[in-house]
Amino acid sequence: MLALVQRALRAQVVVDGLTVGKIDQGLLVLICAEQGDSEAQGDKLLAKLLKLRIFSDTDGKMNRCVQDLDGAGLHGGLLIVSQFTLAADTSSGNRPSFKGAAAPEEGRRLYDHFVAQARAAHTIVQTGIFAADMQVELVNDGPVTIPVRVAPNT
């Protein structure tokens, strides 16, 4: 599984003119299931994201994770958005291939599992709508944008 994580001052997902997910400070997580991925990889990815130290401490160093924000009274949120285009292969020609992405039904199953696990582990979790035409709005803090991949058997 792979994710593109962006440290956000605020972010939201809009579908058909309605806000379906919104956070203040936290992480916007664009997530993609690839062929052969499993729930175990999703669990490892979530554990990594929750402990990823990309928020500033009192000395201005990136030493805090999103869960540390709760302890600091800042209530860091997760906004989780499915994005199969992260699996794009651009190595040949000008049109990306998405054959590495999980099939839609498998991608939905893994996305739903990831979101359920996130809600069990973290206090503020919002989402987009799987396979919807979404507009994602973000105020990227820093900017900080980090790709994270969890391969099988890692």
Which terms summarize this structure?
154 residues, alpha/beta, D-tyrosyl-trna(Tyr) Deacylase, Chain: A, 6-stranded mixed beta sheet, two-stranded antiparallel sheet, 3 helices
Explain how this protein is built:
- The chain has 154 residues and is α/β, with parallel strands linked by helices.
- The chain has a single domain, classed as D-tyrosyl-tRNA(Tyr) deacylase (D-tyrosyl-trna(Tyr) Deacylase, Chain: A, 3-Layer(bba) Sandwich).
- Helices cover 24% and strands 36% of the residues.
- Strands 1, 2, 3, 6, 7 and 8 form a 6-stranded mixed β-sheet that branches. A two-stranded antiparallel ribbon has the order 4-5.
- α3 links the parallel β6 (77-82) and β7 (125-127).
- The longest helix has 18 residues, at 104-121.
- The model has no long low-confidence stretch (mean pLDDT 95).
Order of helices and strands: EEEHEEHEHEE
By CATH, the architecture is named 3-Layer(bba) Sandwich
CATH homologous superfamily annotation: D-tyrosyl-tRNA(Tyr) deacylase
Cα gyration radius (Å):
15 Å
Report the end-to-end length measured between terminal Cα atoms: 11 Å
Low-confidence stretches: none
Helix content: 10-25%
- Residue share in β-strands: 35-45%
